[in-house]
């Protein structure tokens, strides 16, 4: 899957009107060393959700909270960066001409302190409606919502709805649990670093009938990562609003917030990762084991133990 395909999949499986069933790889792989948990995990058929802060990427699930990128707290005017980002969120649903005109309008009207007055957004709304008449009603409602962001953030009922999301994202590195799975059993780096220099093993899980498969989501690899919870929430809300206003005719991107937990830098792309996300240290039921691959440097003792386990549980053993 390309990143674009992954984002479409995330929206379908998490936010679609008729939620999609799992449509990822039929097999996913878990590289492991032999340790005190090896046979406990196999015997009791669970996945372990490791704290995000212990993942190999030191920026895993790292988030920030920065209201000042959204609004000027003194004037309640929107920041130009925020308005630019909003226009970027809308870009896929407008023409290139509409997009360029909107960007130029923002540049022309921005004050010296870098803020954009709310009345500008209302003027922009009329221009956008003229340039994209098929989305006239959606644009009007969307711009009214954008202009009301500062006031909305001050409302207790809105704050109470947002607080759990802020806490979840802000504490993600400590409280988010991840079980990382790979699309391939032949990744040298994984054998070296996760299977103890080829002395461990790799489990092939069968996802085809896994009842928790919709919890297994693709990782997106890119050069830049947006970590500001506020901007990601705005992006997700805009996507949901566009889809709602169009009665589902426009399938907008609502996945910005969940991608806080699913985005890694491009240098990790070779891992081809999918991940089960939940609460730290949880042990959800694992998929059915299809095969166990043994590393080329496995010890005779471990080879014998895991081969006996596989025979007793009708699991195929292969050598990598």
Could you say which structural class the secondary elements and strand pairing correspond to?
alpha+beta
Give the spatial strand order of the biggest sheet: 1-6-11-12
Q: What would the average pLDDT be, to the nearest integer?
A: 81
Number of helical segments with 4 or more residues:
12
Instruction: List segments where confidence is low: pLDDT < 50 over at least 5 consecutive residues.
Output: none
Strand content: 15-25%
Helicity range: 40-55%
Oligomerization category of the chains in this entry: single chain
Q: What's the Cα radius of gyration?
A: 24 Å
Q: Rough shape?
A: elongated
Largest sheet, if any?
A: 4 strands, mixed
N-to-C SSE string, H for helix and E for strand: HEHEEHHEHHHHHEHEEEHEEEHE
Number of strands: 12
Distance between the termini: 25 Å
Describe this structure in words.
This protein is α+β, with helices and mostly antiparallel strands and 320 residues long. The chain has a domain at 3-61 and 176-228 and 269-319. Helix content is 42%, strand content 16%. The chain contains twelve helices and twelve strands. The strands form four sheets. Strands 1-6-11-12 form a four-stranded mixed beta sheet. Strands 2-5-10-7 form a four-stranded antiparallel beta sheet. Helix 3 runs antiparallel to helix 4. The mean pLDDT is 81.
């Amino acid at each position: 899957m390309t990143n674009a395909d992954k984002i479409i999949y995330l929206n379908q499986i998490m936010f679609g009107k008729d939620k999609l069933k799992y449509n990822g790889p039929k097999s996913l792989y878990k590289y492991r060393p032999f340790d005190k948990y090896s046979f406990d995990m196999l015997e009791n058929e669970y996945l372990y959700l490791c704290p995000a802060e212990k993942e190999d990427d030191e920026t895993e699930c790292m988030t920030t909270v920065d209201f000042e990128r959204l609004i000027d707290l003194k004037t309640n005017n929107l920041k130009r960066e925020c308005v630019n980002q909003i226009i970027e969120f809308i870009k896929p649903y407008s023409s290139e001409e509409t997009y360029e005109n909107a960007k130029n309008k923002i540049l022309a009207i921005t004050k010296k302190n870098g803020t954009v007055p709310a009345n500008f957004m209302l003027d922009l709304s009329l221009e956008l409606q003229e340039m994209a008449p098929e989305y006239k009603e959606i644009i009007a409602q969307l711009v009214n919502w954008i202009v009301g962001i500062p006031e909305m953030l001050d409302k207790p009922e809105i704050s109470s709805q947002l607080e759990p999301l802020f806490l979840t994202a802000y504490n993600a590195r400590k409280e988010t649990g991840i079980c990382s799975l790979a699309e391939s059993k032949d990744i040298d780096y994984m054998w070296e670093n996760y299977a103890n220099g080829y002395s461990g093993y790799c489990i092939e899980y069968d996802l085809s009938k896994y009842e928790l498969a919709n919890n297994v989501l693709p990782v997106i690899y890119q050069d830049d990562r947006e970590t500001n919870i506020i901007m990601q929430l705005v992006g997700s809300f805009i996507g949901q609003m566009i889809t709602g206003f169009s009665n589902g005719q426009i399938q907008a991107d609502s996945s910005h917030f969940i991608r806080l937990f699913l985005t890694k830098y491009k240098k990790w792309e070779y891992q081809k990762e999918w991940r089960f996300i939940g609460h730290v240290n949880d042990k959800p039921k694992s998929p059915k084991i299809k095969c166990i691959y043994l590393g080329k440097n496995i010890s005779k003792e471990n080879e014998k133990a895991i081969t006996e386990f596989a025979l007793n549980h009708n699991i195929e053993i292969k050598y990598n």
